[in-house]
Write a structure and sequence with these properties.
binds glycine, 9 helices, 6-stranded mixed β-sheet, alpha/beta
């Protein structure tokens, strides 16, 4: 099969890699593969600490995705010769004051009710696990199955692995996707070049919402949710020992080699990716309240990305009503976590049914019954 993938973020690249492994002829169209939201992300693989009320089907998918990560990371390292920094580190969420403690107690009860692997800890217990926590921290919840990957190393490894598997990169911008007669016909680039093939997979993050040529309603509504993040650096001994330390307003991802990522805001301001002084101040303040030693680190970078969110905050993955047009969009806060499972699923869905776990996330679910007829 000849496949064009629109969007070279982590999901587009992993899908390209898997599709090429399955024997397809694959082109990824993206001016700068590996950038965008995948580059801005923090790389947490956090099905447990990011479990939210009312999102149980998504939780099942996230947990299954987390289980795929060790094998995926090993295979990617072999295929690319690069280490994507997958780190089995656990994550701790801590309470800074009595209000946080009450909120954390509720979160813990919710997580326990779902049968998730969480452990409640007192203030002195959390400080034993993470000595750099502020003496004011009152306690926390440890999630042993939440981990991290270095998202920037990940996309670089995917670019390499996909290239080695035979994927071609086209660095032009996409102008439109030609669809007529109920079938996808071509991806047309800004300079008028037509990439023709059997199948188009759209994995373009928030950009998927505004792709001319795709009939209305085929791509679900996608809203950009801006996240601002900071990159810090210091000697490893000055950084948190635990890979992920979270408060209720901030998370701190420590790579273990002196690099630390602090994130992230949640802002709905359209396509704006400006880094603001206020967000930098708030992120640093919230992180410093938990981990005062962070104030000594070098501030390397402040960045922003746009999370693509659907109306139910869950992804839209699989074939659409347009023959040959498939989607892998709307991964919101879980794009890096869901990369391996989405890639496998999309490729399975090219010539067969979607695996059961992904069935609730069909792109079709946002269309009204009338539109489906
Ligand atoms: N999953 C972390 C974030 O979206 O900020």
């Amino acid at each position: 099969m000849s496949i064009t993938i629109v969007g070279g973020g982590a999901i587009g690249l992993a899908t390209a890699w898997r599709a090429a492994q399955a024997g397809h002829d694959v082109t990824v169209v993206d001016p700068d593969p590996g950038r965008g939201a995948s580059w801005a992300a923090a790389g947490m693989l956090a099905p447990v600490t990011e479990a939210h009320y009312g999102e149980e089907p998504l939780l099942a998918l996230n947990l299954a995705a987390s289980e795929q990560w060790p094998g995926f990371a090993t295979e990617l390292a072999e295929a690319s010769g690069m280490d994507a920094g997958y780190r089995r580190c656990g994550a701790i969420t801590v309470a800074r004051d009595l209000d946080d403690q009450a909120a954390l107690a509720e979160l813990f009860a919710f997580q326990q009710g779902l049968g998730l692997a969480v452990q409640r800890m007192t203030g002195s217990e959390v400080r034993r696990v993470e000595p750099s926590l502020s003496p004011r921290v009152r306690g926390g919840v440890f999630a042993s199955e939440d981990h991290q990957v270095d998202n920037r190393a990940l996309v670089q490894a995917l670019v390499r692995a996909a290239g080695r598997a035979g994927v071609t990169y086209d660095h032009r911008r996409v102008a439109r996707i030609d669809c007529h007669g109920g079938r996808v016909r071509a991806v047309v680039t800004e300079d008028g070049h037509r990439l023709q093939g059997d199948t188009v997979i759209v994995a373009a993050g928030v950009g998927a919402a505004a792709l001319p040529g795709v009939p209305e309603g085929v791509v679900p509504p996608l809203r950009p949710v801006k996240g601002q993040l900071l990159h810090l650096r210091g000697v490893p001994a000055a950084c948190p020992r635990l890979g992920v330390v979270r408060g209720l307003e901030v998370y701190v991802v420590s790579r273990g080699d002196g690099r630390v990522v602090v994130g992230a805001t949640m802002e709905e301001r359209g396509m704006d990716t400006t880094v603001t002084a206020g967000a930098v101040m708030e992120l640093l303040r919230a992180a410093w309240e938990l981990l005062p030693g962070l104030a000594e680190l070098e501030l390397l970078e402040a960045t922003a990305g746009l999370r693509p969110a659907t109306p139910d905050n869950a992804p839209a993955v699989g074939p659409t009503e347009i023959e040959g047009l498939h989607l892998a969009v709307g991964h919101f806060r879980n794009g890096i976590l869901l990369t391996p499972i989405t890639a496998r699923t999309v490729v399975a869905g090219l010539d067969g049914p979607l695996p059961d776990l992904m069935a609730p996330f069909s792109p079709d679910r946002f269309r009204t019954a009338a539109a489906r007829r």
